[in-house]
Prior knowledge:
By secondary structure, the protein is of the alpha+beta class. The chain has helices spanning 11-15, 33-47, 54-58, 106-111, 137-143, 192-199, 252-257, and strands spanning 18-26, 29-30, 69-77, 94-101, 113-122, 151-158, 163-166, 170-175, 178-182, 204-206, 218-223, 227-235, 241-244. Strands 5, 6, 7, 8, 9, 10, 11, 12 and 13 form a 9-stranded mixed beta sheet that branches. The chain has a 4-stranded antiparallel beta sheet with strand order 2-1-3-4. A hairpin with a 2-residue loop joins strand 8 (170-175) and strand 9. It is globular and about 55 Å long. The protein starts with 10 loop residues before the first helix and ends in a 10-residue tail after the last helix.
Amino acid sequence: MSQPWVPFDDRGLAYGDGVFETVLLHEGRPLLWRQHVERLQAGCQRLGIEPPTEDELSATWQATPSVAWEVLKIIVTRGSGGRGYALPHTAVPRLISQRVAFQPDPTAWASGVSVRICQLRLARQPCLAGIKHLNRLENVLARQEWTSPTIREGLLSDSHGWIIEATSMNLFWEQDGCIMTPVLDQCGVAGTLRAALIDAQQVTPGQLALDDIASVDRLWLANSVQGVWPVTDLWTPQGTCLRRWESADQDPLQRVAHPLLGYPATP
Length: 267
């Protein structure tokens, strides 16, 4: 099933007809592997694609590591064939993977990051909500909204004004001592670190309106590769600073999230 290349008629290339995972490896071992496999399988089921076997997926990371930290990207497409959008009579899914060296960013953990609000609004599509499908054009368009190296991420809300995620990270906030993350039943990617924190009852799904984001006690961005980035300041698309937050020595979200990734709980 695994192939190192994609032919012209691959449906993932033509239509975004597939799913992918981005997995952190430490000393050759995958972190949050169960959550990645479950999300990939759920995405394949949602799209009607036969998922790879667990042995096939495990083979993508079992080579001898060249460095301590790596990122493994796994792509599963429906394969080739079909006429237009119609599915092929017998689909043969295609599995592709690649490992690259990675260096964590402890400065972002300790000092926090600046983020901005994006003008683009995510479309609601419950059939695709939560899964990491290959069509990421909304994220690509949103990431084009800024070029300043001082802005590390952009926040995305949906067409109803609810904050959903960042362009490549999940969103978390603290209000009245409770750490929350957006409900993702209409759009957005349900991250694997997010899933692990919800399973551990460290984070509660909820809703946060774009108009209320500047009033939260703390704000974070996080994913299963970068870890947890505290947000120190929030900017509008017009370049106005909406809010600044003081970084804390003891970060409650890093304390519970970073050990799941092999990162220090306190940078």
